[in-house]
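Researcher: Quick one. two chains, 657 residues in total.
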Amino acid sequence: MSLVQQTEKQNMRAWLLAEVPTSRHHARMAAWYQNWLALKRNTLAMAGLGILVAVIIIAIFAPILAPHDPFTQDLANRLKPLGFADHLLGTDSLGRDILSRLLYGSRITLYIVTLVAIIAPIMGLIVGTISGYVGGWVDVVLMRITDIFLAFPKLVLALAFVAALGAGIENAVLAISLTAWPPYARIARAETLTIRKSDFIQAIKLQGAGPIRIITKHIWPLCISSIVIRVTLDMAGVILTAAGLGFLGLGAQPPSPEWGAMISGGRKFILDHWWVATMPGIAIFMVSLAFNLLGDGLRDVLDPKESGR
Amino acid sequence: MEKTGGQLQLSIPPIATKTISTLFTIVITMVGLLFITFIIGRVMPVDPVLAIVGERASQAQYDEAYVSLGLDKPLLVQFLIYLNDVFHGNLGESIRTGMPVFDDIKRFFPATMELATIGTLIGIVVGIPLGVLAAVKRGTWIDQTARFVALIGYSIPVFWIGLVGLLIFYGILGWVGGPGRLDIFYDDVVPTVTGMILIDSLLAGDFEVFSNAFSHIVLPACILGYYSLAYISRMTRSFMLEQLSSEYVTAARVKGLSEARVIWQHAFRNIGVQLITVVALSYAGLLEGSVLTEIIFSWPGIGSYITTSLLSADMAAVLGGTVIVGLVFVCLNVLSDVLYRLLDPRSK
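Model:
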């Protein structure tokens, strides 16, 4: 690293750690940097983040990283053990390379997680903020609906939705989102109730802002941090539910290399060919553990009063 | 509550209104629950008749179902008919078993309850001491281990750990019984009383059946118990930390009480009521967790019932099972709420 680069980096750091921000952008950047430094000290959270980054890279470069085509069957070499020929993790009941299927499967997992992480919190935000901001009977009705959804066990409700909608990845995403939104609505409502009466909202109202502008421009941004923590913590559960639906044959359909479906495919051979079902389970475990570790760390940084729970 | 009549009258109304509003909440929640299952069953499928009678049904069966479902009537009327049916224990007929869904569920439910109960017991017996220990030894390796144990519990797919458990303890070591509730030659040996084989076999005094049933239940129950203990230990820890940092604990220590007495007699007694709620929630969670566990262990419970019905497109059975599990969920929540109010003097 040249001297110029080094001083530039130090200047950047000094700018980010400045006691008195010079602009709104500066203040925001400084806050982000402080949080990042706090998160960086948490080894387990960084391990989680590392795993997730690795999974994203794997998903992007799956075609380059995979030693074989994940769909090519080779019945002569079915159920081969670990390290057979160039099959590092062996082959499944149709002779497909398990490692390649795992690498491609990360795409499906991330696809499901990303969609649920977008759909469910947005549903929750809309319901929760409207409920909290409008109040009155709208609040009562919306919160009752939220409670009813919370009263259902998630997996069973998701099963019923998939039963009605039909099996498939998109329907699984929809079913999981429909079961996952209520906690976000609760959080968003609680945040809205505390913000609603504050002076700055009154000030904006006096400037003539309508409810939609107030909710989307001023209340939503303030709900984000608590919702992000909750989303990160929930993602492990989403992965497990998605894998469970896949395992039951209700999520991704064959021959798609979805991890839950791969476990289900290896279930028949568990006693004689253990690796077929075991390997995808380790992949699911790693990713959901990573989300849990990161979520725990984020909660410690962003929400100190809840930490240690 | 005071002795004079006037004050007594004053203090009753809040309790009465509270009871009424609680009952109202329960009723609304249950009707809402049924409304959701109604929507799932009647509105979401492209053809609800086909979803109920299945694709192999003849035209006559189809027409019969169409009329018996009342699909020619307005949606609201349909829903009221559905509500009326459910309150009379009529959840429709399963096309797979050919029996009323309600009877099927009565047959399958005890197996799930047996599994979830033992799982929760394991969670209580291991989870609570682990949580207390983690709180007392905060920041030490014991705390870290407890945290890690819980994190792993939150991250492992239950169906996968079930398979691996079967592979190791049944396939390789041969320590436990395989899938199912009993070995096949013990089937129907003891008369069904409660539907829970462990209890039925004890009632019949048949210890051979008991030990066989035990060898079958131990692995799935331990797996569910692990999930339960992950949750219970975390919550216990956080409740205990709250107590241990309060002033009365410091006061007790200053008085020179032994550490064990401070922890168990003073701090722990104060979290008892909160723990009841946690245990009830964890029990409800296990009823749900048992869906996938039951599949792995071929356990003939409600989870197996719902999923096998689902795979044979038996919509009435799926929705009936969903309704029952939902209702049990609500009841457990209400029960824990009521216990909380009864046992915690602060809420009076």
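The radius of gyration of chain B is 25 Å.
Researcher: Thanks, that's what I needed.
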